[in-house]
Amino acid sequence: MSSGKQSVKVVVRCRPLNDREKALGSKMVLSMDLRRCQCFIEKPGAVDEPPKQFTFDGNYFIDQTTEQMYNEIAYALVEGVTEGYNGTIFAYGQTGSGKSFTMQGVSEPAAQRGVIPRAFEHIFESIQVENTKFLVRASYLEIYNEEIRDLLGTDTKQRLEVNFLLLSLHPVC
Ligand SMILES: Nc1ncnc2c1ncn2[C@@H]1O[C@H](COP(=O)(O)OP(=O)(O)OP(=O)(O)O)[C@@H](O)[C@H]1O
Ligand SMILES: [Mg+2]
């Protein structure tokens, strides 16, 4: 993870091959140098071609956990939100790449609990202070094919007009 203080950070996470990919005999084409935050993609069969190389603000390979990602990436951002700064964590990737695994996660093993439950726990712990009341508003939505759908609504097919933050936190005077 780079130590720079830039306001936008882009990190990449690689998931293990799934059963279907293993059954097809697929080979892992991605490798990472975690210390240098670099990843390398090789073209299968093209032994003479050098791998394509990309550098990110943080790299997470198949054995890294969401706990590690949260502590290194999300923790400071959520902490900033509790101090009044805006913050967004955005998962991007093609279908099956691991967005829900990272954001929602699984309860077992505990190290793979998702970013969302971790952030909620973090926020509710930080607002347990005396003499101040907080109002926490949350929404959960999906942008798919350029349409926005409310995933907490009863009709998830209904398009949603959104003009507020995904998660906002206000001290109530
Ligand atoms: N880091 C990981 N370690 C182990 N399994 C993973 C990891 N990331 C994803 N998976 C598994 O890969 C599968 C696909 O992941 P996931 O459902 O999170 O993809 P997605 O990006 O949310 O896809 P979609 O866009 O279709 O919702 C799931 O079975 C998930 O458990
Ligand atoms: Mg998903």
From TrEMBL:
Coarsely, its chief localization is cytoplasm
* Places the protein is found: Cytoplasm, Cytoskeleton
Alphabetized InterPro entries for the sequence? Kinesin-like_fam (IPR027640), Kinesin_motor_dom (IPR001752), Kinesin_motor_dom_sf (IPR036961), P-loop_NTPase (IPR027417)
> Which residues are involved in binding ATP?
93-100
Top-level taxon of the source organism: Eukaryota
Example GO CC term: the record gives: microtubule
Give one GO biological process term.
microtubule-based movement
Q: Where's the Kinesin motor domain? A: 7-173
| Keywords for the protein's UniProt record, in alphabetical order | ATP-binding, Coiled coil, Cytoplasm, Cytoskeleton, Microtubule, Motor protein, Nucleotide-binding
Molecular functions per Gene Ontology: ATP binding; microtubule binding; microtubule motor activity
- What's this protein's family per the entry? Belongs to the TRAFAC class myosin-kinesin ATPase superfamily. Kinesin family.
The protein's name is Kinesin motor domain-containing protein
Which species?
Answer: Seriola lalandi dorsalis
